Amino acid sequence: LLKDAVLTPTGVFHGIISLRKESGVRALPDSYALLSYNPAEEGVKEKSLALGNKWFYDLKLTLTPDTNLWLAGYYSNMVEPSMVGAFSVVIDSNTGELLNTGLSPFERDFRLMFRQEIKNNEDDLGLFKLDKVFLKNNGSLSMISEKRYTRESTIYNPASRMYTVIQIHNHEELLISTIKPSSKITENILLPKYQSSSQEFGRYTSYV
Question: What are the CB-based long-range contacts (under 8 Å, 24+) for 156-160?
Answer without folding.
Answer: none
